[in-house]
Every structure is written in structure tokens, then in C-alpha cells.
Specification:
Strand order of the largest sheet: 2-1-3-4-5
Distance between the termini: 13 Å
Number of helices: 12
Number of strands: 5
Strand content: 5-15%
Largest sheet: 5 strands, parallel
Protein name: Haloacid dehalogenase type II
CATH class of the largest domain: Alpha Beta
CATH superfamily of the largest domain: HAD superfamily/HAD-like
Order of helices and strands: EHHHHHHHEHHHEHEEH
CATH architecture of the largest domain: 3-Layer(aba) Sandwich
Keywords: Hydrolase
InterPro entries: 2-HAD (IPR006328), HAD-like_sf (IPR036412), HAD-SF_hydro_IA (IPR006439), HAD_sf (IPR023214), S-2-haloacid_dehalogenase (IPR051540)
Helix content: 40-55%
Radius of gyration: 18 Å
Number of domains: 2
Length: about 240
């Protein structure tokens, strides 16, 4: 870690609590459209479940690189259909507003304070599959103290493609070994390490709710393992 000049962060699940944020907006949306019986957290889970398959179409070259806002919107319409709702009857404005729930996610309770400490020593930026507008709106609303906002379209690749990590280092003007990915997901860290980045695991035990069964601890000896961002700041001397 002595060589590291910048910290880049996975965002969904590591910086922000996507499940509760989506559920918060889904509850009134579903009630307005005749489905108050649907569990908003289950709705959030179903929407998120389509996230990786949608990006895989781009990674595999079956589809050109497509911004996450567009993929999220397509996935939203499919989840609505799965639950007996017709997107055409809901209307464009309401669909767009619900899709932008991803722009309004709240950080984990200690995240902003921890990032503020880390920023004293390191350049901070997201390394997310989110697009620039999404990450910008999220940061403005939640006062997330990024030094730069790099969305997936800046690198033109979705994690865990090596280009997502290597192009980010190049954009920041540093070597891969001068860049550290901070993430709550072992798979993301594994891909970053394979691309030459330093790695920091932060535990988010309830990202997928109280019954979460994955990423409950570090799978490998990452460069740093921390309980949260405040603990990470302490371990990095910030």
C-alpha cells in the first residue's frame, strides 16, 4: 500500500445501500400502480438480479457498450412485466422517475465520514459499473466527496473486464500498482488484483438483506481488510 496514490471504490453495495434505497422508492410506486401487495425489497432484489446478465451482453460483444441507466430501464420494464404490470400503462415519466431511484441511493451510515478522512491522503473516485450521470447525481445528493467521477462509459468496459481497471489507472495518470480498489465483493477484488491493482475489502454484511450468504468475509488475503470506511481510514493512517 506504500505505493498507492489513489483509492477507487465499487459503489453499489460498497458505498451505498442499493437494496434499501430501491425498496424505499418502490413501495409507493407499486402502491400507485395497484400492487401494494408486492414486497418492495423482493422487487429490489429481482431488479438487481438482472444487473449482471444485462452487462454480460455487452461484455460478450453481443451488444455494444450501453450505459447502465439504459440497462436498468430495460430491466425495470421486464421486472414489472414479471409481476403483471404493463410498463406502457404506467407512462414514461413515472418509469423514468422510478429508474432514477438508482441515482438517489443513500450511503452506508459511516461512508461519507470515512471517505472524507481517506481523501486527506488519497485521490478518491468511483470505479463502478454505474454511468457518469448516475454517479454524479448520487454524489451531489449524498455529499459523497469524490475527487473525480469516472463512470463505466469513461473506460468503455464493465467490471470485471480488465479494461475497466487498467483504463481507470491510465485515466488517473498512475500505474495499476498505484491504484487500490476498495470493494465489498471478493470477485471484484480478485479481478482487480489480476490487473495489478492493490485491494481493500470492506465488509457489508447486509447488502443483500439479513439473510446474505455471500461476501461475509475476505476470501483471500487482500492488502487491507476493514470493517467499514472508518476502520479503513484508520488502517491507512488517515
Amino acid at each position: 500500500m506504500e505505493r498507492v496514490k489513489a483509492l477507487v471504490f465499487d459503489v453499489f453495495g460498497t458505498v451505498v445501500d442499493w437494496r434499501e434505497g430501491i425498496a424505499r422508492d418502490a413501495a409507493p410506486f407499486l402502491a400507485r400502480h395497484g400492487r401494494p401487495d408486492l414486497d418492495p425489497r423482493a422487487f429490489a432484489d429481482a431488479w438487481r438480479k438482472r444487473y449482471q446478465p444485462a452487462m454480460e451482453e455487452c461484455r460478450a460483444g453481443r451488444r455494444p457498450f450501453t450505459r447502465l441507466d439504459v440497462l436498468h430501464r430495460e430491466n425495470l420494464e421486464n421486472v414489472l412485466r414479471d409481476n403483471g404490470l404493463d410498463p406502457a400503462r404506467i407512462g414514461e415519466a413515472e418509469l423514468d422517475a422510478m429508474n432514477r431511484a438508482w441515482h438517489r441511493l443513500d450511503p452506508w451510515p459511516e461512508a461519507v465520514a470515512g471517505l472524507t478522512r481517506l481523501r486527506r491522503r488519497y485521490v478518491l473516485a468511483p470505479l463502478s459499473n454505474g454511468n457518469v450521470a448516475l454517479l454524479l447525481n448520487m454524489a451531489k445528493r449524498a455529499a459523497i466527496p469524490w475527487d473525480a467521477i469516472l463512470g463505466a462509459e469513461v473506460a468503455g468496459a464493465y467490471k470485471p473486464q480488465p479494461e475497466a481497471y487498467l483504463r481507470t489507472a491510465d485515466i488517473l495518470g498512475i500505474r495499476p500498482d498505484e491504484l487500490c480498489l476498495v470493494a465489498a465483493h471478493n470477485g471484484d477484488l480478485r479481478a482487480a488484483r489480476q490487473s495489478g491493482l492493490a485491494t481493500a475489502f470492506v465488509l457489508r454484511r447486509t447488502e443483500h438483506g439479513p439473510d446474505q450468504a455471500t461476501d461475509l468475509g475476505p476470501d483471500e488475503p487482500w492488502d487491507v481488510v476493514a470493517a467499514d470506511f472508518q476502520d479503513l481510514a484508520r488502517k491507512l493512517g488517515c
